[in-house]
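ingest -> validate -> predict -> emit
validate: passed (alphabet ok, no gaps, 224 aa)
predict: started
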Amino acid sequence: MSEVINKLQPDRTIYLNGFDGYGAAAALHHASPTGFEVTGVFRDQADFAVLLIWDADNSFEHYSMRYLPDFDFTRMVLTFDLYYQGLQPIESPKYNWIDWATLDCISSTGQAQYANLFDNAMLVGGTYTPASGVFHVQAGPDGPQSYDRLTLWLQNLAFDYIVPVAPSGTVATVEYQFFAAGTRTTHSITINGRVYSHNETNPNGESSADQAAALVAATVAAES
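emit:
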């Protein structure tokens, strides 16, 4: 019985290329001509599973019937619906420490190319509202005292504040730590009720020092 197999056909050309991590496991299942599912157990932020949607070299079929290396995708457009649960979201501005936010390709010349999934995505439902929170800290009747310390933990990031020593007649200073989180991330500080912000726009990434310098520049520009 003959069968026509199309490129990128989920139940014929897509396969799981492995997973990483001592506690990680993944499986490709429920593949059909129109879709597939991948289920996994990942216990660390660096755990991952690799799904190969097209391999120019057919490494499964017998050499007498396998297709020749094929890199021609002329007039082909790849579209798919993406649904995931319990994984890093593709719209996250965090640094892409593993390639969860990109579709990786290797050209016929051996060059690696990357397509950002979120930049090519269309929202089907819901919103992309970033998570936020406001914390009101109340001091005692005498107010905050020198060396009082407040640390806010978000996963493995610590936002630390230590009340400085402010002798009479001097102006107290405050030191904050800033962490770069990726393009489209907005950092801000509030001074006397006025918000100063900086948005990460460099596609090549910005350092944590860049965030602090940009916020300092924003406050200076507003006061000048």
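Residues 10-120 form one domain.
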